[in-house]
Amino acid sequence: MNPELLRLLVTREMPYGKYKGRLIADLPGHYLGWFARAGFPSGELGGLIALMYELDHNALRHLLDPLRKP
Predict the structure, then answer these.
(1) 48, 53, 56, 61: CA torsion to nearest 10
(2) How many whole angstroms separate alpha carbon 57 and alpha carbon 32?
(3) Which superkingdom, per the lineage (predicted)?
(4) In sequence order, what are the beta bridge partners of 35?
(5) If you count Cβ atoms within 10 Å of the first and of the last residue's Cβ in the chain, which end, N or C, has fewer?
(6) Predicted local confidence at residue 56, as pLDDT
(7) Cα 6 vs. chain centroid, distance in angstroms?
(8) Is 2 or 42 the better-scoring residue by pLDDT?
(9) What ranges do the domains of the chain cover?
(10) Entry pTM
(11) Whole-angstrom distance, CA of residue 55 vs CA of residue 50
């Protein structure tokens, strides 16, 4: 796994939708699950949302804590 992708999860904001402006790492699990069922967007954003879904689904959100800015 590329550590830079994990860093992007705690710095990149959702660019549209109900959670526009929220960090991808802070998207709620039900929203990530919706993307998993409906389909992830194409490109980098979709890859980041899919990665966040996997972290959330496997109860690994805590791995992002050290990467967050204080």
Answers:
(1) 0
(2) 9
(3) Bacteria
(4) none
(5) C
(6) 98
(7) 9
(8) 42
(9) 3-65
(10) 0.93
(11) 9
Residue with tokens 């972290």: 55
- How do the residues of the chain divide into helix, strand and coil, expressed in percent and rounded to 5? 60, 5, 35
Residues 61, 54: Cα–Cα separation, whole Å: 9
Q: Which sign, positive or negative, has the C-alpha torsion 13, 19, 17, 62? A: positive
Instruction: Name the amino acid, one letter, at 19.
Output: Y
What is the spatial distance between Cα 14 and Cα 58, in angstroms, rounded to a whole number? 21
Q: Summarize the confidence of residues 37-60 as an average pLDDT.
A: 97
How many residues does the structure list for the chain? 70
Query: Distance between CA 42 and CA 57 in Å, rounded?
Result: 20
Give the CA distances from residue 34 to residues 4, 19, 21, 66, in Å, rounded to whole numbers and listed in that order: 25, 13, 18, 27
